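Morning - PRP inputs below, output right after.
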Amino acid sequence: MSTVTIALSKGRIFDETLPLLRAAGIEPADDPEKSRKLILDTSKPEVKLIIVRASDVPTYVQYGAADLGVAGKDVLMEHSGTGLYQPLDLGIGRCRMMVAVREGFDYAAAIQRGARLNVATKYTHTASEHFAKKGMHVNLIKLYGSMELAPLTGLADAIVDLVSTGNTLKANRLIAVEEVVPISSRLIVNRAALKLKREALQPLIDAIETASKD
Ligand code: PRP
């Protein structure tokens, strides 16, 4: 029996993937929030989970260090690698990528007068495509987190960030003005592994697919 390695990130993706893995008979031996281990055994001896940064999941799967992975569409849109097969929208980790500005900033008026906005974001590739499609010229400023601070400190006029409950925007007196793209998490598969280990991978993918539709 070939071994199967699944790359996951801690937090929401891990928590929401657990029930799907359980449906496939896979139960992790450790809780990544409590253990410092990065490779977790599971109830199936041939299946291991690796815990990586969300933005590193596609890289592990692309190079075949993991056979499967769960990654948000936000991360996948920023990842430029090849060799990934995205068979399933798992319908978990749902949120929206949005443009947001400070309360009182007239985004529509700024666009209308053709202002060149400074936009801070972790998602420079996706944001660049979004504004290009709208015919807007923007200066993109790359940040790695806490994007909400950028309009409050004068670093940027707007941000492109994920919005789930909207609580973070509200707490920082920002408002969402435009949707960039709806986001959910996808199961990604290494293309070569799918060919070479189909016998081990296909039943797993099928079980995860069935569970994700329940
Ligand atoms: C995300 C996002 C927002 C927040 C939105 O950050 O960047 O800051 O969640 O959620 P809300 O609408 O429910 O308030 P996350 O907590 O994932 O951390 P990150 O900044 O490391 O991406």
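Note: Residues 170 and 186 are 28 Å apart (CA to CA).

O.
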